[in-house]
Amino acid sequence: MYKKATYFNYLLLAEEIMASNDPSTIKKLGNASTMRQRQAIGTELSCRDFDHEEWRKNKALNKMLLKIMYTVVRAKFEQNEQLFNMLIETGDACLIEASQTDLFWGIGCSMDSQKIKIIDNWRGSNHMGNLLMQLRNEFKFGCKAKKTTITKK
């Protein structure tokens, strides 16, 4: 969220994101796309409306996002033995982010949807699931593994 705010030159918003320790507040701050939404949260009003499509379609930004998330998620699993073990215990299972609304990190289907079972039905990219599978392989084999990606045929 911080990188998103700085990319669009929302410096006050970036400061607010860094000052918060509450993940839910950070997410709200980073996802507020209109002045009205920012006003409801009590944040920077002087910046233009946020264009989520501009953010999602920019390949350089997506690459940066994936690198940042890789670093953050890797650190999370390295620092928490219980989470580390849970990830390893998934074996060779295909991991997904079952988010109906997040087409970047998730698959675009909810957990209870029948579409979840068929990869061709996924509307999203499943970057989070792919990242988790990559990290699982790296941890299992003790080296930097080749990126794991589940793609549609």
UniProtKB/TrEMBL annotation:
<dbReference type="InterPro" id="IPR037238">
    <property type="entry name" value="YbiA-like_sf"/>
</dbReference>
<protein>
    <submittedName>
        <fullName>NADAR domain-containing protein</fullName>
    </submittedName>
</protein>
<dbReference type="InterPro" id="IPR012816">
    <property type="entry name" value="NADAR"/>
</dbReference>
<feature type="domain" description="NADAR">
    <location>
        <begin position="1"/>
        <end position="139"/>
    </location>
</feature>
<dbReference type="Pfam" id="PF08719">
    <property type="entry name" value="NADAR"/>
</dbReference>
